[in-house]
Amino acid sequence: MTSEANNILWQSLSVTKSARAAQKGQAAKCIWFTGLSGAGKTTIANLLDKKLHSRGMHTYILDGDNVRHGLNRDLGFTDIDRIENIRRVAEVAKLMVDAGLIVLVSFISPFRVERLMARNLFEVGEFVEVYVATPLEECEKRDVKGLYAKARRGDLKNFTGLDSPYEEPQAAEIVLHTQAESSDVCVDRVLQVLA
Amino acid sequence: MTSEANNILWQSLSVTKSARAAQKGQAAKCIWFTGLSGAGKTTIANLLDKKLHSRGMHTYILDGDNVRHGLNRDLGFTDIDRIENIRRVAEVAKLMVDAGLIVLVSFISPFRVERLMARNLFEVGEFVEVYVATPLEECEKRDVKGLYAKARRGDLKNFTGLDSPYEEPQAAEIVLHTQAESSDVCVDRVLQVLA
Question: Which residues contact A41 (CB under 8 A, 6 or more apart)?
Answer without folding.
Answer: A33, A34, A35, A106, A107, A108, A132
